[in-house]
Design goal:
heterodimer, A: 643 residues, alpha+beta, 4 domains, eight-stranded antiparallel β-sheet, 20 strands, B: alpha+beta, Immunoglobulin-like, 3 domains, three-stranded antiparallel β-sheet, rod-shaped
């Protein structure tokens, strides 16, 4: 307790050891999340011994040394193989552990040596190998500020508030340098930037390439983000925000599967009358190979391909945050010849299942000859069945899922609507398939930024008519919407505001990631090109830089202003300034009272007499009251206002 | 613009030297660059730029910290050869911001000044050790600082040069010893000065018998019994060598000053009267002999 009291006390100037302790605390904090348990235990033991503040005996030092070596061994146990040793990360980890041991042993002696002084900087540099996130960006900036503050505290030997002020001053002066260098410093880099480093281990996904109708359905109505999309201009309309995942043909009773034959690269002629839309996607790790592009994708990202069904897949599974640029034509139709196997697959249905639906389909076939008329008939059927969109529907009879959905349960979500519609379409001899992916309603967007969450996972239908695949939004046929007993209105205004705030924060995070963490050579070159060609942008850019410099200068000026530590002097200071403007100057060795006496004969300064009296009364009163201070402040203000 | 000109003038007043910590900054920059080059992590670049930015910003802050400080020699204690004395410097900070971590380097001594408040002054006591008597020049003083980040050594040369007199080292026998050595404190026993009226308290040995014979009671008065105006110190008899004589005379002068005694110093070509001269004048005469 005494150690903590000493350590946290800000009244006195901290000792160099205390400053170093604080520096270590700051730099070690993020590393705690990556170091192994044995090393954590060693750090805990060292901290306890340091807190005890007793000089260790030789025996204690030997025991701590043995414990340190054991911790090192067990922390890296299992990595001692050739596969592990080829990873740079292991060496960095080893280096960090060795530093921990050296620092702890030295700190126990209570003697500051050169590596105890320099190690916080080493640890800061090494920690940067492991983290690359917005939160770490903020932490690093704070970390640098605190380390600067501690260095200043050591040299200034002053109280905390003064040290903080000077640190802020120094930091603000450094800021324009940092910004300018960040923008203009050439980004030259080693080709294999990720050598030896793993991606994020977190994998999240609401889409796995199949579509289940039973309880195994991957219905994940969670708020976790799947991807973030940045458009050049504003976010397109909601009915265009279909992110295509896998295309399913085969009905396996309880689930639908893709057609293996359709993995060949696509050969499609796009409707060139619609302008293609370019956008940037940040996809979080899914451990699957699908990349989600807006319907209909035309340009595959690097190391990915688009197949005949317009599914975009990466060569390897996405195990780390992936950033890619893509281009799509926002269309609900795609002209494409249909191959025989695809046609066969998209017309296949189980003739032994769903007798009621088959009977109705037969009637439609007989009544209408044109596919478009038959499609309208199915749509009409869905609309008249009084179907309910529900995320917790009654279980279906999976042997007759279409009949069960349309005439019995009448409840379901996108997969049930899509499966039933596809089956019905096939029964009336219209080739149909299911497309799974994500559909955003555009609510989760700010300006040009869109967030796609797991709960946006969706399934829709494509039917082949007039030599093209046409999208059908089957959930649109629901007559009612039931959201787990909650209505949108029930969410309330507060909930809505919180969700908007969350979205704004996400947008800020996305912009920081885009413009700071992911700023690279290409982005830099693009920026320079824009600066060369776009005068308006150049002007804005220069103005922004000027603003930063002016803001820093202003902050510098404010921080360098004299700090008034005496309350009474602070209150009289503006009065003296005002009097000085009237060309009255206090002479050397002239007391304030003498000065005021000398000038109070000036008619403009008639209030000075009472001010003088109050000032000296307060100055020499043994226990001045708050009221007296207030009275003085009031008179001072009146005096100033009188000009 | 004016403030830039002022800053530039202030900068010109100073000398800036890279300290060993600058080397550390260079190593850090190189290390961070390698790390950034290998992994293309913008976090590393940002750290690198902050280190660079802070190192660059240290310069203006350091200049403003020390550049406007005014240092004047306020006074000095009496300077004696081979003896440690002190001079007092007045350091004034005219800025609206405090100055920190200053160090006054003067005559081979470094004196730390932790902080000078804005528009405030502090008096700094600097130890001085003069090696010989005579004129002593206080020059080559500098005000130095490593503020804010230890990376740059800011040196403000103090251009003034002031001459002070170093008095001879007070050394030799004390005044008390000197007087004890003498047979009588003042004058000679045999110097008969005259007679005066006697009373019963007087020693019979001093009775002036011829007067008694005439019917008067009188006693003999000798020269050494009369109060003297001043002590007389002779240059040649003070010691055997000139330097030792001067040291001896300096010591006696100081002792007389302390005891409030008047004295005269008989030099080969002049006599120094304490009644007519200040003690410092006498000491200066001795210093410059």
């Amino acid at each position: 307790m005494k150690f903590l009291q000493n350590w946290l006390s800000t009244n006195t100037v901290p000792s160099p050891l205390r400053l170093l302790d604080f520096a270590y605390l700051v730099v070690i904090l993020p590393l705690l999340s990556i170091i192994k348990l044995p090393m954590l235990l060693f750090l805990l033991l060292s901290s306890i011994l340091i807190i005890k503040e007793k000089k260790p005996t030789n025996l204690t030092q030997i025991l701590v040394g043995i414990f340190a070596l054991l911790s090192l061994f067990f922390s890296l146990y299992g990595s001692f193989n050739f596969a592990g040793i080829s990873r740079l990360k292991l060496f960095i980890e080893l280096l960090i552990y060795i530093l921990f041991i050296a620092i702890s042993m030295q700190r126990l002696t209570g003697v500051i040596n050169i590596y105890l002084k320099l190690s916080p900087l080493f640890l800061l540099a090494l920690s940067l190998f492991f983290f690359h996130s917005v939160s770490m960006l903020f932490y690093v900036v704070i970390e640098i500020f605190i380390l600067t503050l501690l260095i200043l505290w050591q040299i200034m030997q002053s109280n905390f508030s003064r040290v903080f002020r000077v640190s802020s001053l120094l930091f603000l002066t450094a800021l324009p340098w940092v910004i300018l260098l960040f923008i203009f410093f050439p980004r030259i880099s080693f080709e294999h930037a990720n050598y030896g480093f793993k991606g994020e281990s977190v994998k999240r996904m609401g889409h796995d390439g199949k579509m289940y109708l039973d309880n195994t359905a991957l219905l994940v109505p969670s708020e976790r983000i799947v991807m973030e999309v940045g458009f050049k201009e504003k976010v397109p309309k909601p009915d265009m925000l279909y992110f295509r995942g896998s295309v399913l043909y085969e009905d396996k009773n309880n689930h639908w599967e893709p057609l293996v034959l359709n993995n060949a690269p696509r050969q499609i002629d796009f409707n060139t009358t619609i302008n293609p839309l370019s956008y940037k996607v940040t996809l979080y790790p899914t451990n699957k190979h699908w990349l989600y592009l807006l319907d209909m994708p035309i340009t595959a990202p690097k190391n990915a391909q688009i197949n005949t069904d317009l599914e975009t897949t990466a060569i390897e599974n996405v195990t780390k945050i992936l950033h890619y640029n893509a281009t799509s034509i926002l269309s609900s139709q795609i002209k494409q010849p249909i191959s025989k196997p695809t046609r066969r697959a998209s017309l296949t249905y189980n003739t032994k299942a769903n007798p009621k639906s088959q009977h109705l389909a037969k009637q439609i076939r007989e009544a209408f000859t044109l596919p478009s008329q038959r499609l309208l008939a199915i749509e009409k059927l869905f609309k008249t069945q009084d179907l309910t969109y529900s995320l917790s529907p009654k279980p279906l009879d999976l042997n007759h899922s279409t009949d069960s959905f349309l005439w019995e349960s009448k409840e379901g979500y996108c997969v049930h609507f899509a499966a039933a519609f596809t089956t019905m379409a096939r029964m009336v001899e219209i080739p149909a398939r299911i497309v799974t992916g994500y559909k955003s309603n555009g609510e989760k967007s700010v300006k040009n930024y869109l967030v796609v969450r797991e709960k946006d996972a969706h399934a829709w239908v494509e039917v082949y008519m007039n030599h093209q695949w046409n999208r059908v939004e089957t959930t649109a046929f629901a007559s009612h919407v039931k959201l787990n007993g909650e209505t949108k209105e029930a969410q309330g205004a507060l909930s809505y505001q919180l969700s908007q705030l969350n979205l704004t924060l996400l947008y800020v995070k996305y912009q920081i990631e885009t413009w700071i963490l992911e700023y690279n050579y290409l982005r830099q070159m693009k920026l320079f090109d824009t600066l060369k060609t776009d005068v308006g942008f150049l002007l804005k850019f220069v103005l922004l830089l000027l603003f930063i410099i002016i803001a820093s200068s202003f902050a510098w000026k404010v921080l360098r202003e004299q700090v008034c530590e005496d309350r009474l002097l602070c209150m009289i200071y503006p009065v003296l300034k005002k009097v000085e403007k009237l060309h009255y100057h206090r002479e050397d060795k002239e007391s304030l009272q003498q000065f005021f006496h000398r000038i109070e004969s000036d008619s403009r300064l008639f209030q000075l007499k009472s001010l003088n009296q109050l000032y000296h009364k307060l100055r020499y009163a043994p226990h001045p009251t708050k009221e007296e201070y207030k009275a003085f402040e009031r008179v001072a203000k009146l005096f100033l206002k009188s000009f | 613009m004016n403030s830039f000109q002022t800053f530039n003038q202030t900068r010109k007043r100073l000398k800036q030297r890279a300290s060993w910590y600058s080397l550390l900054v260079v190593v850090m920059l190189f290390g961070f660059f390698l790390e950034a080059y290998m992994h293309n992590f913008n976090l590393v670049y940002i750290t690198l730029f902050f280190v660079f930015g802070l190192a660059m910003s240290a310069s203006p802050l350091g200049i403003l910290n020390i550049g406007n400080t005014q240092v004047t020699l306020k006074s000095c204690e009496r300077l004696f050869a081979h003896e440690k004395s002190h001079c007092y410097f007045l350091c004034h900070n005219p800025n609206t911001f405090e100055s920190y971590a200053l160090e006054l380097h003067c005559m081979g001594n470094n004196t730390a000044i932790k902080q000078i408040g804005s528009q405030k002054s502090v008096t700094i006591k600097v130890p001085i050790l003069a090696k010989k008597r005579g004129e002593f020049e206080i020059n080559n003083c500098t005000l130095e600082s490593l503020f804010p980040l230890y990376t740059i050594h800011f040196i403000l040369p103090l251009t003034y040069s002031e001459k002070r007199t170093t008095y001879p080292q007070p050394k030799g026998i004390t005044l008390q010893e000197y007087l004890a050595k003498r047979k009588t404190s003042f004058g000679d026993e045999q110097d008969f000065d005259g007679i005066r009226q006697a009373n019963e308290a007087h020693n019979l040995a001093r009775i002036h018998w011829p007067s008694v014979a005439k019917g008067e009671s009188a006693i003999k008065i000798f020269d050494h019994e009369l109060p003297q105006d001043a002590l007389n110190f002779d240059f040649f008899t003070a010691a055997k060598e000139d330097e030792a004589r001067l040291s001896q005379l300096t010591l006696w002068t100081l002792e007389c000053e302390q005891k409030g005694l008047d004295f005269n110093i008989v030099l080969p070509h002049e006599i120094l009267y304490s009644k007519r001269m200040q003690v410092d004048e006498i000491l200066t005469k001795l210093a410059l002999y």
